[in-house]
Amino acid sequence: MSLTILNHKSFKVDKALSEKLTNAFNLICNEESLDKCSINLKLVNNEEITELNKIYRNKNKPTNVLSFTNEDISKSRTNELGDIAISFEFVEQESKEQNKKFNDHVIHMFIHGIYHILGFDHENDSMADAMEEKEILLLEKLQIKNPYK
Fold first, then answer.
1. Fold for domain 2-141?
2. Segment 66-71 long-range contacts (CB within 8 Å, at least 24 positions apart)
3. Would you say the C-alpha torsion 141, 112, 27, 137 has a positive or negative sign?
């Protein structure tokens, strides 16, 4: 299992956050029985995430996290699940508004993004409930409070 983290020039992931993200990735891989897989995470600003959101979701606004599932023919050889983009600016603002710790919120968005890559969604209540339940259990194991309360 491997996680590649790409920093934005205006934001550097410190060692503590990097370790927590790696622990979260390893935990989710164990929980979901994923073996020898990898994922790429890029921290971006609001401008970059808006551009991605516009191109891939036809929405001209920033968001906290976007997930891109690897549908390339190389997946069977590389075991690369996909890519995740998290806007550190958006997550920082949400953290303040929702009275959450920044690192905890980044980790939650990362886990949320992975579950999207694994096929979970929140398009209806039952799918949202299943996804949130998985997220809450993982976050609890990482000593992070339930973000939905």
1. Collagenase (Catalytic Domain) (3.40.390)
2. 66/113, 67/113, 67/114, 67/116, 67/117, 68/117, 69/116, 69/117, 70/117
3. positive
Cβ atoms within 10 Å, residue 102: 14
- What's the full length of the chain, in residues? 149
Q: Is the pTM of this model over 0.70?
A: yes
For 13-48, write each residue's pLDDT tens digit.
999 999 999 999 999 999 999 888 899 999 999 999
Q: List the domain boundaries for the chain.
A: 2-141
Higher pLDDT among residues 134 and 36, named by residue? 134
**Contact between 117 and 81 (Cβ < 8 Å):** yes
